[in-house]
Amino acid sequence: MGEAKKLYIKTYGCQMNVYDSERMAEALGGQGYVTTDSPEDADMILLNTCHIREKAAEKVYSELGRFKGLKAEKPDLKIGVAGCVAQAEGEEIMRRQPMVDLVVGPQSYHRLPELEAKAGQGQKALDTDFPVEDKFEILKSRPKAKRGPTAFLTVQEGCDKFCAFCVVPYTRGAEVSRPVIRVLDEARDLVERGVREITLLGQNVNAYHGEGPDGADWSLARLIWELDRIDGLERIRFTTSHPNDMTDDLIAAHGECGKLMPYLHLPVQSGSDRILKRMNRSHDRDSYLRLIEKIRAARPDILISGDFIVGFPEETDQDFEDTMDLIRQVNYGQAFSFKYSTRPGTPAAERAQVDPDVASDRLARLQALITEQQRAIQDAMVGREVGVLFEKKGRMDGQMVGKSDYLHAVHVTDPRAEIGKIARVRITQSGPNSLAGEIV
Ligand code: 5AD
Ligand code: SF4
């Protein structure tokens, strides 16, 4: 047997891409590849790309440019582009960057072994189909490597909502839920390999409606309650949710299910009813605020996180002030905010754009407000006791870093802090990006 071939994967964008990169590495593991952290050593470089905003795609092209030298030195080096840019612009990538050997979309990465073989024969390999076979099933059951304490698990993919700014319905396709049994099998397997916390992933994860063992459609809440019964699994999270799919059983689970963590990412995008309508969000400001109230009634200490877009076409100063006002009412513990980015092929791309300088000012103001809220919520943790799951060693001697129930990073220096274990920690300090505490 020859020496193992080396695979370097760089992942952009969302957590689903992180999950997909793991699956792709496993798929190529069957072809004799092991992963490496340095592109210089690699026999294959794979960029797992994101298409959600303009800059993301541009980054891919400049990254590819950086590998030109490597490819010249090592003609056998294979370069592949995967993910959502591959899906959207596969053919164009091959034209613009002739050094790319292989292009694979998010729905066909189980076919990577064949594509790799084709590229090995010096042919260009491109697959951006939406195949009927189940990529998750085909990739199942590779070697049972030990895992870290946290893992992602994709349960739902795609989106049927067609927000006017978003490419996801085009790159990831229609909404599909994986059957309950498959999810449970994968979860049990992860737990056997050392995982203590699972984050269920989906572009619209709370719209999950997978086929249950009884033949009926199961909701996300029902799936969570079933996962709750797995011994050794200590924590459950899910992301990303749409306000319209926040069903009563899921809200109730936040109050009743001990393993479901008190953190909810619930993007609203804008606080202006006019803009929400133009975004095709199908919820309004008031329904969102009432929903947050209901969720907090079920779980008063829940940490709310959100996504915001500023400078959406036709957004006026008043629309933006409405967003600021909504943020003040909700009080976010975490948020991701973006300047609107025109995506070709989406409805909003055709509309009157906001002056980029105006959009930048709004983004800065919004981010300042969010940072203030985030910091206040984090500071208020001082003196409280929280569960912390330790994930890795910290930078200082003897220090461990973990995540609290609320997803804050927490530093602890104590020999009892062990990777993969959960301890009760009293928070003693709040820094710019993390907390520090002592085991009680
Ligand atoms: N421009 C800016 N932000 C966008 N998002 C999605 N599409 C765009 C776009 N065209 C943001 C939304 C979404 C998050 C994942 O990315 O806030 O919730
Ligand atoms: Fe995009 Fe809207 Fe679907 Fe989220 S709900 S993936 S923002 S279309």
TrEMBL record:
Coiled coil: none annotated. SMART domains: Elp3. Residues 379-440 form the TRAM domain. Gene3D superfamilies: Methylthiotransferase, N-terminal domain, tm_1862 like domain. GO terms for cellular component: cytosol. It catalyses: N(6)-dimethylallyladenosine(37) in tRNA + (sulfur carrier)-SH + AH2 + S-adenosyl-L-methionine = 2-thio-N(6)-dimethylallyladenosine(37) in tRNA + (sulfur carrier)-H + 5'-deoxyadenosine + L-methionine + A + H(+); N(6)-dimethylallyladenosine(37) in tRNA + (sulfur carrier)-SH + AH2 + 2 S-adenosyl-L-methionine = 2-methylsulfanyl-N(6)-dimethylallyladenosine(37) in tRNA + (sulfur carrier)-H + 5'-deoxyadenosine + L-methionine + A + S-adenosyl-L-homocysteine + 2 H(+); 2-thio-N(6)-dimethylallyladenosine(37) in tRNA + S-adenosyl-L-methionine = 2-methylsulfanyl-N(6)-dimethylallyladenosine(37) in tRNA + S-adenosyl-L-homocysteine + H(+). Binds 2 [4Fe-4S] clusters. One cluster is coordinated with 3 cysteines and an exchangeable S-adenosyl-L-methionine. Monomer. This is tRNA-2-methylthio-N(6)-dimethylallyladenosine synthase.
